[in-house]
Specification:
The protein is of the alpha+beta class. Helices cover 31% and strands 33% of the residues. The strands form two sheets. A six-stranded antiparallel sheet has the order 4-5-3-6-8-7. Strands 1-2 form a two-stranded antiparallel sheet. α2 crosses α3. It starts with a helix and ends with a helix. The N terminus is likely disordered.
Length: 175
């Protein structure tokens, strides 16, 4: 019980050091009374690619990125039509990725989205983020999430309409 009390005091000290509401760094360190810390929120460039819905399409794109020395940090394939398959991806070199994919004859567009990273993934991470946006009447257009498991790191990429992107960024930085 004493260890838990000390741990709580340490976390309370972190909370007491939390910057004022105007803080724009987006990074904190623990969860106390609904306050999610250890969260980093930033705006990132996402590529949107629509390829032919045939076997091997994703492989062609991934191989082109490999040849261009572009690392895929996140990808989301959504159900398309019988003819096309759209997907979004976050990469470490967006400009090089765009060139590599376009060299295949595939159209690529850039979109800005939000990256929400947690150092301590726990049940409720997605719910809390989605509730925060929903309460502000911000609709999520696309979301993809990856986690190394309970207590590990997790990253969520969220697309919202362009007009609400700055508002969503500020709201999520207050988690």
């Amino acid at each position: 019980m004493v260890a838990n009390t000390a741990s709580f005091r340490e976390r309370t000290d972190v909370l007491a050091e939390r910057p004022a509401a105007g803080y724009h760094g987006g990074h904190y360190a623990n969860l106390i009374d609904g306050y999610m810390a250890g969260i980093t929120v930033k705006q990132v460039t996402q590529l949107k690619v629509v390829v032919a819905h045939v076997p091997g399409s994703l492989a062609r794109v991934a191989e082109a990125l490999q040849k261009a020395d572009v690392n895929i940090e996140g990808t989301c394939h959504t159900e398309g039509t019988d003819e096309t398959a759209p997907f979004r991806m976050i990469v470490d070199k967006p400009d090089e990725a765009k060139k590599a994919i376009e060299s295949l004859g595939e159209p690529v567009t850039f979109e800005q989205c939000l990256s929400v990273q947690s150092e301590d993934d726990k049940p409720g991470f997605i719910a809390r983020v989605a509730r925060k946006l929903g309460a502000a009447s911000i609709n999520i257009q696309a979301i993809y999430h990856t986690s190394s498991g309970r207590g590990g790191s997790a990253t969520m990429y969220i697309s919202v309409d362009k007009a609400n992107l700055p508002k969503a960024l500020e709201l999520l930085k207050s988690l």
